[in-house]
Every structure is written in C-alpha cells, then in structure tokens.
Amino acid sequence: MGSYAATAGIGFLGAPSVLVVEDEWLLRNTVADYLRELDFVVAEADSADDALTRLQNGLSVDLIISDVKMPGRMDGIGLAGWLEANRPSLPVILASGTISLTDAHRPSNVWRYLEKPYNFQLLEEAVLELFALRRASNAPTQPEHAGACSEWQCYAKARA
Fold first, then answer.
1. Which of 24, 52, 54, 110 makes the best surface tag, with the fewest CB within 10 Å?
2. Percentage helix, strand, coil, to 5, in the chain?
3. What's the pLDDT tens digit per position in 25-57?
4. 0.70 cut: is pTM over it?
C-alpha cells in the first residue's frame, strides 16, 4: 500500500477528502482507516441520510464511497442520484455485497461499482485513478454553456 501523498507528490494538507458512507461500523472504520493510511482526509457517515445531512450542512469532500443497501429513507443509489442532480461534479464509488451493477440504476456520477467484501487493492486503484485524472484534467467545475459536460462527466469521458 502506498500513500496518496507519495503518489501525488503533495503533502498532507493537499490530500483530497473522502466521505465513507457505510452502516456497518466495523467495515466503515476499516475502509476509513485504510484511506487514512493512504493520506486521505476521511469523514464518515453511518447512512445515506446522515451523509446527505452532513453535505447539506457544509461538509465538503472530493469523493464519496458508499454502501448501496443501508437503513433509512435513502440508500447509496439514492444518494448518488441526489448528488447527480445537486452536485454533479462530486464522484461516487458504490459498493455492495448483494446488488450487482446490472441490478442497479447507475447515476452518471458513479465512478466505480465495487463488490463487497472489499478488495482493498481495487479500492485503492479506483481512488488513485480518479484523483490522477482529476489532477490531469483541465475541465471546468461548472458547465459554461448548455450541452457542456460537468467536471465529473468530463473526467468520465476522458477515462472511457
């Protein structure tokens, strides 16, 4: 396992932030600790509802990693859909041990869909690839005209 700072050539203060949304405490803590070892700044939420409240109250992050099936009014796919409509430049990685990608509506801001139990090497690769593309991209944060892609959509197009 490498560190984001070493990979990106930046110090801790420049590290991107990640919100881990997972209702199972031990799994959330494990994923969050793993990302912290990679030098990411990590916030945690125990449900999509909790994540939405935090985001609406000003939490600013660069990536959300969310479980799909969680208790509450909203699941991970609902959270990704809300983000697609309200914060389209915020990428999401969804993870599930019970729902396959073909079973779920995949909002356009979903960067990856990972199966659980987590393969931490795949998680690390997905996160590092996303931030490498973000660093390399000169895409605007907001579309300047109708038909322009959002920052996230431009990254996704560049990746395809």
1. 24
2. 45, 15, 40
3. 999 999 999 999 999 999 999 999 999 999 999
4. yes
Tell me which residue range forms the domain holding 143: 4-159
Closest CA to 130 of 149, 112, 147, 146: 112
3-state SS of 10-74 is CCHHHCCEEEEECCCHHHHHHHHHHHHHCCCEEEEECCHHHHHHHHHCCCCCCEEEEECCCCCCC
CATH number at residue 133: 3.40.50.2300
Q: Report yes or no: 11 and 5 within 8 Å, Cβ to Cβ.
A: yes
pLDDT digits (tens, 9 = 90+) for 4-31: 544 544 334 568 999 999 999 999 999 9
